[in-house]
Amino acid sequence: xxxxxxxxxxxxxxxxxxxxxxxxxxxxxxxxxxxxxxxxxxxxxxxxxxxxxxxxxxxxxxxxxxxxxxxxxxxxxxxxxxxxxxxxxxxxxxxxxxxxxxxxxxxxxxxxxxxxxxxxxxxxxxxxxxxxxxxxxxxxxxxxxxxxxxxxxxxxxxxxxxxxxxxxxxxxxxxxxxxxxxxxxxxxxxxxxxxxxxxxxxxxxxxxxxxxxxxxxxxxxxxxxxxxxxxxxxxxxxxxxxxxxxxxxxxxxxxxxxxxxxxxxxxxxxxxxxxxxxxxxxxxxxxxxxxxxxxxxxxxxxxxxxxxxxxxxxxxxxxxxxxxxxxxxxxxxxxxxxxxxxxxxxxxxxxxxxxxxxxxxxxxxxxxxxxxxxxxxxxxxxxxxxxxxxxxxxxxxxxxxxxxxxxxxxxxxxxxxxxxxxxxxxxxxxxxxxxxxxxxxxxxxxxxxxxxxxxxxx
Length: 458
What we know:
Number of helices: 5
Largest sheet: 9 strands, mixed
Strand content: 35-45%
Number of strands: 29
């Protein structure tokens, strides 16, 4: 009798403990919202290639297909700040990933999926949990110096990701081990997507990548956010991991005037320019050309190069990035002479309707010579845009926000004809210098720059 009572007591105690634990678990899960219902793909859609996605046993199953591009299963909804929890499983070789704050936009390379990807990497490299920028800047936060995260991945088994995207900060954990810590502000909103990576013609078709328990927190994030012991990787005014590998250099350090001077002086202007919060801004002074602080130029000169910078304009603003500048020309009034990537508020500034050639003074155009593609995308006033100039062996390209908008050959018959018809016709050998300075223009309007970088070629 006593034994039975004792056993009953133990059984009741275990039951109470289990109930309490279950209650705690349920309570802790109340803040999570499933974005996969476990039954079908309602709320999701496929973008990209022809790999397949199905649902079985409460799991999303993606299956590789030969000779097709990367294929993504994306949420219909877009998200800004969130905490994402999910489980995934793949084989020992199949690369995959989880896209966050990603987009497929008609103006960006015919709708190509682009944005942050939390890598699934079962290879010997073991960078699962690292952050890759799909179809843009490539690796932002690899795991080459994070051995605990590299060893946390369980091959051929279920693994768990926690992904926090809050403001400009993205942090990841793999199986509760801190993996990545990135501070980057390129994209604030986008869909979440699961990737089946392209395998080309030589990869193995029919390989399955599985996901389950895909859950999200979008409210009270400060309550549920976790701290990370990792040192953050900050991209603002710094080279990314991939840029360092590819030989880029910072053209502005984000803090000082080092490496820059006035276009018509040996020192940096004492007025008209401001450095604050990692931004280099030409100040508003009434819209006049080089009438306040004046243009600034690099102290070094460049021949074959790529140059990138983020820029932000104010309403009605006008500015520009000039290259192959000869500061010995035009020592008088006005701006220094050189080829120009135009920066302009096309909707408001009258220059958008002027020029020696139609449309040649609109944003990203080769100023007064060649109109940028009218399908170009410019982010709204007050948001950052990215200018990219490529000049190799006299072949020049202008890119805006990751899309090429024009190209030309310096010195070609077509180029010389355009110059002869432009405001530059009286400047000898305009645009034909072997090397020159790079210039940021003071046109009397508030325009800001950051992430100014350059890559040079022999």
